[in-house]
């Protein structure tokens, strides 16, 4: 899927190109280089600059900051380097276990200090490694969605992480994103470099800001939450505090089984929503979060309006800068009752219905072809089930079979089906031979054996005899 580059920051574009070059180098570089290489030693003291913002991050713990620094030491400034293993990071950072490294890396990714930009596989589909990007400040959400295609999915899965701190941080990040979506923003708007620097200055001066990706409410909840939360009770606690969590939790409330079965049947019969095909995986997940707060009766209309706007922008060669922000505005208008479907949305709806109709016709044709093939395999030599046969008894005791080959399914008249002359045999004659008469009548009537052949026919037979 081609990604919308829109108003992505130039430095993010440069980073994306650098990542792509790294992927190509990883796929083409042999494990052992045949060419000789020179080495260089620096005999002075190494001095590595550490960003001040990482020490002021309200969520990171000292071990997280230390592990960020160890990864920074392993990185080179001008070319990609091999990512250190968990064992190497644990040894350098002087932490007790590799599980602590995994916990810190999950928190660094959730807070956007670290990004997984690519998962590299070779031509045979074998996994070759991840491409990580380490940042000197929390990456804006819009840029994270562009570089880390699985970021929202990672946050949703991190809510079930083995470590409680990872679960709390992931829940707080998602809660902040949903709060922005409810306000009609979504936090996916692109900030200019100057705006970003002003936010960083306010953060360094101790002013409240959204620089680290947390709202003040979510940050307060994160600070006040207990350090250890049993995993089995986590779902119910998150469901009561954050509305973005799936509401299907297990409780002790009893309900009439007939009502619950009826509700389940009603949910299964609901038509699934059709999302615009141009949305990325991150945008799809954010779109579903947006629609949770919109009336169900207009959810598909909202998506049609978004699809119409994206299609119109594509035809004008003007990509939409912030589709999720636009969707959040539509959902906000729907909650207020002021949402209306424009001509763009109506056109997108008609196109969606036509595509769904054509797809359904293709599915029906495929199902019929498979059923016909299955019948032929199970009953070789038998006529097709679409070709119906009818057997009728003739006056002389023989069977007449008529095949239903008509287009409308009606049976073909057996008397009209016989187009070739028929014959009957009479006899024996006085000399013991048989007399055979051909029925050449145009109306298809048979010659009665009781009356025998007509007189002129008798005369012809006498002359032959």
UniProtKB/TrEMBL annotation:
Coiled-coil residue spans: none
Protein name as annotated: Uncharacterized protein
Protein source organism: endosymbiont of Riftia pachyptila (vent Ph05)
NCBIfam families the record matches: STY4528_fam
Domain of life according to the entry: Bacteria
Taxonomic lineage of the native organism: Bacteria, Pseudomonadati, Pseudomonadota, Gammaproteobacteria, sulfur-oxidizing symbionts
Biased composition (Polar residues): 230-248, 391-401, 412-423, 436-445
Biased composition (Basic and acidic residues): 256-268, 455-465
Renumbered residue ranges of the record's region Disordered: 230-269, 375-465
């Amino acid at each position: 899927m081609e990604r919308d580059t829109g108003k992505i920051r130039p430095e993010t574009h440069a980073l994306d190109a650098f990542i792509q070059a790294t992927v190509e180098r990883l796929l083409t570089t042999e494990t052992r280089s045949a060419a000789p290489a020179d080495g260089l030693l620096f005999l002075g003291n190494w001095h590595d600059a550490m960003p001040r913002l990482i020490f002021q991050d309200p969520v990171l713990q000292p071990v997280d900051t230390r592990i960020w620094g160890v990864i920074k030491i392993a990185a080179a400034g001008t070319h990609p380097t091999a990512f250190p293993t968990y064992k190497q990071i644990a040894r350098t950072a002087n932490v007790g276990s590799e599980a602590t490294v995994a916990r810190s890396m999950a928190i660094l990714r959730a807070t956007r200090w670290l990004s997984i930009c690519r998962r590299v596989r070779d031509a045979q589909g074998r996994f070759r490694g991840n491409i990580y990007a380490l940042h000197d400040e929390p990456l804006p959400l819009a840029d994270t969605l562009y570089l880390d295609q699985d970021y929202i999915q990672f946050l949703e899965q991190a809510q079930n992480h083995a470590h409680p701190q990872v679960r709390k941080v992931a829940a707080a990040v998602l809660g902040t994103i949903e709060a922005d979506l409810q306000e009609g923003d979504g936090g996916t708007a692109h900030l200019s470099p100057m705006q970003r620097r002003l936010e960083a200055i306010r953060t360094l001066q101790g002013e409240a800001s959204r620089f680290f990706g947390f709202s003040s409410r979510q940050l307060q909840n994160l600070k006040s939450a207990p350090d250890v939360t049993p995993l089995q009770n986590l779902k119910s606690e998150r469901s009561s505090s954050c509305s973005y969590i799936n509401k299907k939790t297990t409780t002790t409330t009893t309900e009439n089984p007939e009502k619950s079965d009826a509700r389940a049947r009603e949910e299964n019969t609901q038509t699934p929503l059709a999302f615009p095909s141009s949305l990325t995986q991150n945008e799809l997940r954010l779109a579903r979060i947006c629609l949770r707060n919109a009336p169900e009766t207009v959810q598909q209309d909202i998506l049609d309006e978004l699809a119409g706007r994206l299609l119109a922008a594509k035809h004008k060669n003007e990509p939409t800068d912030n589709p999720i922000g636009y969707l959040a505005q539509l959902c906000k208008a729907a909650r207020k009752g002021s949402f209306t479907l424009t001509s763009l949305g109506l056109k997108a709806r008609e196109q969606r219905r036509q595509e769904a109709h054509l797809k359904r016709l293709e599915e029906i044709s495929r199902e019929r072809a498979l059923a016909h093939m299955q019948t032929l395999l199970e009953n070789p030599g038998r006529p097709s089930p679409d070709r119906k046969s009818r057997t009728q008894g003739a006056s002389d005791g023989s069977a007449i079979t008529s095949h239903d080959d008509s287009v409308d399914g009606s049976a073909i008249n057996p008397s009209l089906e016989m187009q070739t002359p028929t014959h009957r045999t009479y006899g024996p004659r006085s000399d013991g031979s048989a007399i055979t008469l051909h029925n050449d009548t145009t109306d298809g009537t048979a010659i009665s054996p009781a009356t025998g052949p007509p007189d002129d026919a008798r005369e012809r037979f006498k002359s032959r005899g």
